[in-house]
Amino acid sequence: MVDDSPQQTPRARSIYTSYRTFLASSVILFFLIGLTVRPAFGQMGPSKVAVAEARQVDVEPTLRVVGTIRPWRRSVVAADVAGIVNELPLEEGDEVTHGQLLCKLRDVTHKTAYDEAVARRDVLAAALEEQRALEAKAEFEQKRIAGLWELDRCTEKEFRDAEADHRAAVVRTLQAEHALRAQEAVVTRTADQLERTRIVAPFDGQVIAKRTEVGAWVDVGGEVAELLDLSTARVRVNVPEAIVDHCTVGDEVMVSVAAVGKDYAARISRVISSGDDRARSFPVEIDLPNEDGHLRDGMFVSAAVPSGKKEARLVIPKDAVVLRGAQMIFVVHDGESGATAVPMTVQIISEYADRVAVEAAGLSAGDRVVIRGNEYMFGPSPVIIVPSEGEGEKGKDEGVKTSRR
């Protein structure tokens, strides 16, 4: 019989050696973990926490509805005149300013038409000056003959001819003035057509689409580029018909944009009366400043909009609410052995900025809730209360409006 024990077989000896190494490493690892963790548990004591008082404030209940970010302005820029694209100094994603050149069409025909119109205008202007001189001459002659007529030193025919020549000169001057005015209109029209070969940005914004290319023919009304202006983001949410009457222009709302991880305190800008007859909802728009450009067209948003009348509610800082399977807060009670933070389940009724209105059995105005240090609390915990930042600010909650989750 062949003995294949670890002492006899090289492969077995290698496996046996690896096993011993693994076992030794595991023992050392557990030993190090024990050294690290044991002092943490051994030193457990009261946690330092910051607290705030629950306060009773008149607030409106709210309903959280969803919507989409739209640009403040969107425009498909088109050509006013037909022509071949000579220049197209833009790319998708470029930022442009009002009046910046987007597209230049071939302009030779329009330029020559403008030059011809200007030359014709100058000719008519000179003709008008000549006719005014002839009118002045006819007027002088008419006055001279009229003087002789009064002295009975000319015939009646000479007198009538002088009057007719003067009236004819006046009419010819009017004709020359009208001809010049008509030609000035032609100059204005051809200048406008020449200018329209330069297609410029109608507002500050971003190019999101090119609709033509250099060398392409563009008809009148042909699309050149699409721009949007997101300096202000227009949030549109759909509000159920049952609560739309509680939403009025100027009402405060809370808008959450998950993509940027940020909440915005804003006001309702528009309530649109034409709704969706299938969803029985009405559009409500909220304008958000977007100086940093983080808000983009098409982003998903949710907004807490008013859904009822104001009622007295208990309001606490939003930081007091933690998720432990359910929404919970920790209320501090004093006892003989010191302060203890006791968990309590709450229901959020509404929210605004850093405050929320809640309902909780056993919570009363004046109760202290933990707002710092509750991150790792799961049950009743001994605590030591320390001052919080901004402590002492009073009346901050007045008029709070708020989002039913």
Shape: elongated
Unreliable spans: 1-8, 27-43, 391-405
Helix-strand string: HEEEEEEHHEEEEEEEEEEEEEEEE
- Provide a count of the helices: 3
Based on CA atoms alone, the radius of gyration comes out at: 43 Å
* Backbone structural class: alpha+beta
Summed over residues and divided by their number, the pLDDT gives a mean of: 86
User: Can you give the helix content as a percent range?
Assistant: 25-40%
**Beta content:** 35-45%
Cα distance spanning the termini: 76 Å
- In total, the number of strands is 22
Q: Could you give the order of strands across the largest sheet?
A: 3-10-13-12-11-14
Reported for the largest beta sheet, the result is: 6 strands, antiparallel, barrel
Folded structure, characterized:
- There is one protein chain.
- By secondary structure, the protein is of the alpha+beta class.
- Among the domains are: 47-59 and 310-385, conserved putative lor/sdh protein from methanococcus maripaludis s2 fold (Beta Barrel); 64-73 and 228-306, Elongation Factor Tu (Ef-tu), domain 3; 107-196.
- It has 3 helices and 22 strands.
- It has helices spanning 10-42, 108-150, 156-195, and strands at residues 47-53, 55-59, 62-78, 83-87, 95-96, 101-105, 198-200, 205-210, 217-218, 223-240, 252-257, 262-271, 281-289, 300-306, 311-317, 322-323, 327-335, 338-345, 347-352, 355-359, 368-372, 381-385.
- The strands form 4 sheets. Strands 3-10-13-12-11-14 form a 6-stranded antiparallel beta barrel.
- Helix 2 runs antiparallel to helix 3 (156-195).
- Mean pLDDT is 86; it is low at 1-8, 27-43 and 391-405.
